[in-house]
Design goal:
- 43% of the residues lie in helices and 17% in strands.
- The chain has 13 helices and eight strands.
- Strand 1, helix 1 and strand 2 form a beta-alpha-beta unit.
- Helix 9 packs across helix 11 and helix 10 runs antiparallel to helix 11.
- The protein is globular, with a radius of gyration of 20 Å.
- The model has no long low-confidence stretch (mean pLDDT 94).
Length: 296
């Protein structure tokens, strides 16, 4: 089997039906849907299972979020190369041509492009811009640096990854509620040697108001800080002179609201997770944290 497509699912059978309808049925690709112990829409989910008999439907042993579902898929996948999709997104008609293009090539990772649409209106959204702008810059430039795709592109979709790379480096997703894909993404970037960056647009990201990425709480904010502090430590320990500023917005918010108790707590979380105060202050100065916190 050449490809395995892994799709985590939780309580979104209609969105999942839409996604599966856009996935080509191919002899060289298996499709795995991993249900994370859905609690609603049981009848609708069973209808989807009946409509797509070629799909392997799996389940987590208990609800654990997208990271746990993807790890379950990793354990069961048979393909040489792995692809990930979110249940509320879908593929474009170019997806099959993309798979054909790389069917005879050996590589560690392929990055491809996407569009983004709002869920309710299907108007163009911005969730693809961080990726699309970098792919456009890469394609137009003589400088073929893959730094962004290795260390800053954090989502699992729009990638084709060699399973050997994952197994040899014991890579898996963090089984946490947010940013469960961040560690997997930068490890894939670090360990990949041969990377293709392809401008083909083959995926559609749906900008959905109720998605996990839009839900915030103080516990989740601290979890975000922990994830990106660990990332900083990993890059530093492996001689990678890059720093992901995704850690800074919570600090900027705390400064802007003059909540210095919260700011101190955030700093303590970062330090416990391996980010030294000296490194934090140096990178915060580059990021101009105070000036950004002062903007409305």
């Amino acid at each position: 089997m050449r490809y395995s497509l892994i799709i985590p699912h939780f309580n979104l059978p209609e969105k999942l039906r839409r996604l599966l309808a856009t996935v080509p049925v191919r002899e060289d690709m298996e499709v795995l849907v991993v249900d994370d112990c859905s609690t609603n829409y049981t009848a609708e989910f069973n209808e989807v299972k009946a409509e797509f008999p070629h799909v392997r439907f799996l389940s987590t042993d208990q609800n654990g979020g997208g990271g746990k579902a993807r790890n379950t898929g990793l354990q069961q996948a048979k393909g040489e190369y792995l692809i990930f999709a979110d249940a509320d997104d879908f593929f474009l008609p170019t997806f099959s041509a993309l798979l054909d293009k790389y069917a005879g090539k050996e590589f560690d990772m392929v990055i491809f492009d996407a569009i983004s649409l709002e869920e309710d209106t299907f108007k163009l959204s911005h969730r693809n811009e961080h990726l699309s702008s970098q792919i456009a810059r890469y394609s137009a430039s003589d400088d073929k640096s893959t730094v962004y795709f290795r260390y800053y592109f954090g989502e699992p979709w729009c990638r084709i990854i060699n399973r050997r790379l994952i197994e040899e480096n014991a890579m898996k997703f963090d089984e946490i509620r947010i940013h469960n894909d961040t560690t997997f993404a930068y490890l894939a970037g670090y360990y990949s040697e041969k990377i293709y960056v392809d401008p083909m647009v083959a995926y559609c990201i749906i900008d959905r108001p109720g998605s996990v990425s839009k839900c915030g709480s103080d516990d989740r904010i601290k979890l975000r800080i922990e994830v990106f502090a660990r990332k900083s430590r990993f890059l530093q320990d492996h001689g990678i002179k890059e720093f992901d500023p995704m850690i800074f917005p919570p600090f900027a918010d705390a400064i802007k609201s003059h909540d210095f108790k919260r700011l101190k707590e955030y700093l303590q979380v970062a330090e416990r997770s391996g980010l030294t105060r000296a490194t934090f202050m140096k990178e915060a100065a580059k990021y101009k944290l105070k000036r950004i916190a002062g903007k409305s």
